[in-house]
Every structure is written in C-alpha cells, then in structure tokens.
Amino acid sequence: MYRVLATAPLLAATALAAPTAPAKYDYIVVGGGTSGLVVANRLSELNNVTVAVIEAGGSVFNNENVTNPNGYGLAFGTDIDWAYESVEQTYGGGKTQTLRAGKALGGTSAINGMAYTRAEDAQVDAWEKIGNKGWNWASLLEYYKKSETVQPPKADQLAGGATYDPAYHGTEGPLKVGWKNQMMNISFPEVLNSTYKANNVPYIYDIAGGKMAGWNVFPSTLDVELNVREDAARAYYYPFENRTNYHVLLNTEAQKLVWAESGAEATASGVEVKDSTGQTRTIYANREVILSAGSLKSPLLLELSGVGNPDILKAAGVEVKVELPAVGENLQDQTNNGFDGVATKSFSGTAVNVAYPNVEDIFGNRTAAIAADVKKQLASYASDASKVSNGVISEEAIAQFFEIQYDLIFKDLVPLAEILIYPTGSAFSAEFWSLLPFSRGNIHIADASAASAKINPNYYQATWDMTEQVGTAKYIRQLFNTAPLKSLLANETEPGAAVATDEQLSEWILDNYRSNFHPVGTTAMMPKDIGGVVDSSLKVYGTSNVRVVDAGVLPFQVCGHLVSTLYAVAEKASDIIKAEA
Hints:
The protein is an alpha/beta fold. 27% of the residues lie in helices and 21% in strands. Strands 1, 2, 3, 11, 12, 13, 14 and 24 form an eight-stranded mixed β-sheet that branches. A four-stranded mixed β-sheet has the order 6-7-9-10. Strands 17, 19, 22 and 23 form a four-stranded antiparallel β-sheet that branches. Helix 11 runs antiparallel to helix 12. Pfam families: GMC_oxred_C, GMC_oxred_N.
C-alpha cells in the first residue's frame, strides 16, 4: 500500500497564477519538468537573481496517479499527459503512435516508470568526440552524484536482491533514489541469476558506474520512507518553495519567444504566454530564456519564434529570425514490445530486475556476420536519414554519427536492448526495447501554432532496427527455455509459439510495438556544421541568450532510462549558466 499525503498544499506559496506574477525576471525557464526545475532551482541559489518557471500544467502533489510508486500508466490519457501523436509511420506498419510526456509540475518525471538507470560511459564520452568539449563520462558522473541522495537498501530490499556501490552515488542531492518497498523475494532474482549466468550474462553489482552490460536489481526515483514517487517537483521545487526569488507560473503555456529589436545575434527579451483563462501577455527576461519544454516541445517553440529552417518557417507563415535548419531534425526514439505468458506458480511483490544484453549476447556466433552486414549498410542508412532531413544534415555528418554508433554496438559492446522480466500473480511478462536505433526522424510546425506539429520518429526505416528487435525477441525465448526460468513459465500466450520465423516476428512487432517514450536529439548539442542546434554551453546558435536544457540536446540515445541522465545534464548546465551570470 502507498500513503497519500493529506497535508500537502494544492499550490505552493510561490506557485503563481500568471496574472499575479511579476512582469520581469532575470531568468525565464520554459517548462517545469525534469530539466527545467533543476535549472531553476540552481539558478535561484544566487540571491541576486530572480527566476520564473513557465509550466503549462498544474500541481500533481496529491494526484494518486502520480504518487503511487507502482502506478505506471495510470496517468496516461489523462489531463496531465501531453499524449503527442505521430504521423502515420511509413516503415512502422502505417499507423500513428502516441508519445507520452508529462503535462504537470514535474514534467515526465511525474508519469514515467521511475527507473533510475544511467548511461554507458562510452556513450557519454562520444558526446565529446563529436565536438562537445567537457561533456564526458568522468565529468557527468559527478553531476549524477550531485543530483542524488541514495537511500541504501533496507533488509527487505537486500533480501530482494538490491545491491549498490556507494562510490557511484550521491548523498546530499535533492533527488531521492532507492529501491521499491514490497520487492519480490530473493527466490525470483536467484532464478534470474542462474538463467542469465547460463547465457553468459553477468550480474552487475551497480549499473550506475557506467558499465551496464549484464543484469541488475535497479533503484527508482522514490521516497522510500513515504513510499511515493520522487518527481522533479518533490525534489527540486517543493522543499525550496519559500525562496522569494523562485516563482513557478502554473497552467501557463509558452507561445513563443519575444525578441529585442537590434543586435548582431538574436536576443530574447521575454516569452509570450497564455494562461488558463486564455489571456495572453509577455513575461520579460533581463538575462536569459532557457527552454526545457522537452524534446517534442522546445524545437516547436524555437520554430514558432522564428528560429529554424527558413523553408519550414516561411511555409508556416512565421517570420525568420535565425536561420538554423537543424531545429527539429535528428529525432531518435526507441520501440517497445512485450511477451506474455502464464506462470506455473503465483508471485507476489514488485519485480525490479533489468537486463542489458549486448550484441554478442543476443546474436552469439552470428555477431561477426551481422556486424559486417550493418557496416555495409551504414552509407545507405546515412543517405536515407539525410533525405528525411531534406538534406539539412549531410550524408557525411550522419555517416560520422553512425560510425560512432556502430563502434559503440560492435566494438565497445554497449548494451543493445533492455529486458524487463516480471511475473505478476499467475501472469508472466517480458517487456523489451531496442536502445540504439539507426532510424532518424523529425518534428516541425505546419502553421503558426504548436498544435500543428508533425511528429515523425520514422520507426524502422533502418533495417537494423527490426533486425535487432527480432533478435531480442528470439533471445527472450532463449531465456524462457533456459532452466531454471523455464520451470516458471507454463506457456507463452503473446505472441505465441506459432510466431517463430523472422518474418512472423517482424509482422508481430509491427502490429504491436509502441513508442518507448524516450525521444531525443531534436535540438542536438554538437557543432552547427554537422547539424547542431546548441553549442557545448547549450546556447542556441545565432542567439545571445537562449539555451535549451532537456532531452532534445542529447546527440545520441543512451542505454539507461533518460531521467537520471537529464538530471545530471541539467545540473551541469546550471553550473555553466551560473559561471556566466
């Protein structure tokens, strides 16, 4: 059972309705989600500045669909879910997909699965290799730790298989991280350990240290004592709500940036907003505007403000302020599928195990042949991805990224897939998704409103993405047929044993996949000449005082769940901004 905090305020003292808010602040942060609240919190540590957060949603402090630590999915389709819709997917079965994102104070951290798993070290080091000086694993690890207060596993959590290395964790950060209460007892993790061991997959004592290939009992963004979700608002806003220089404007949606009249670089003077009554006005910024509206909203705000591809802006009736063609390009998302079955016994408790197999685990002695085949196709993948961007990002630039991704997969052997195996009652499920797709898409406005957005993740355009997904499905079947896990599965009901060939599995995947809700890359941090939108200080090219700090700046997908890495990136971004204050 979980507790509901009956004494919590519906609105914090400094969470203001737009008409009562001051008209000018030093910093305006657009988006009160995972990244935005980190930046706003850290900037408001400076006593001589004022900070406003513009948040389209409201407070969800008492919303049981949010607070329930085992309530993943309860908020989907409610008024706190943006529920973005993609266009029909040409290579993804011809259907649309819904991409979930939080519309509330706390953003997507208020509706996600709460899993706290980081990135692989080589992936973050790749950010620096493409031109982002100072963005590497060693640097980011310190910011992961800065954001975190780890809650060491208690006796019952240890009995459920929880392990950790204090060297990789913080003890004084705003964000509480710990293992779930009422975990499944040790017998199930022992079964998994024996099964994975038989398939040469090691147990990773702590996957927070940059080496993730293996399996682990993972922690969550959770207040263990209160047994409630620890979202960004609980971590970075409510404990600090008495700061008089830190204001949150709830139920207030940013429409576009307002620009100063002159200057060699475009300078934002404020943000035009609309409140819940439909009133439109401008909140002014003395210093900077930081976009943290998420990878599916920040690029739209840039385009609506005249920053982007001139062809797209003119077609939408938007005056061009800054020519920056890569805005909205480089969209990367992961695809999710699941097996279902009937268990031979009944289970109780929460399963919090995760496996991160690499390419050799999944493909075995076929790995060399598959690597050679993918290598041959990289140029074709790059050509296709460049065409999707209408040539905005060159084949040569995309080929550079794909070579790096190829090396991560086939040389560094970073995790290729994530697998969650969880019995519930007498049911048995395995959820899985690809981590490093080669397909690239985009998001753009069609007219002068965010509602016109055309979202095209372009799922499965690259044939590798389906090869990997089919390979992972067959690998899960291999696990299911390995003792002792084999003894716990009576039969597979979805997709069923009759779906066995690569062609049959591909068809099933296309019929049943969904977005994994991890879109990145739409305002990528990298050099402008290879498709970047922000530089290594996260400042938008061609502007003097506009930055983006959210998942859109990640140039590549990461192996872990995004939330932990976004907290770390936002912590580092805050220090960069403060150093220039």
